[in-house]
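**Archive record**
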Amino acid sequence: MAIRQVDFLEPINLADHLGKVELYLGQVCQIAGISKMQLDYWTNKAQIPTKGKKQRIYDIEALETVMLIKQAKDKGLNLGAAIDAARRFREQSRVA
């Protein structure tokens, strides 16, 4: 019986590769469901690290922070409390 080419393939765990992903401001807004103005403000206020000179580029960790802030805001926290909650949540998940 001949070995088919498809038999050489193995499943890929995309989560292992997400650290390499870089997203532009518009993409982060689309994923998080917020406006560009909100993202700019939150990025400055929460001091979210970005790359890029002319246009901000966000990594997966920055996207997670933005989404955690959005979640906290949606649950009724003000921006300062939401940023604090997101920061604490990320610290706890790093330790765990």
In short: Residues 21-95 form a domain with the Multidrug-efflux Transporter Regulator; Chain: A; Domain 2 fold (CATH 1.10.1660.10). The first helix runs from residue 25 to 32.
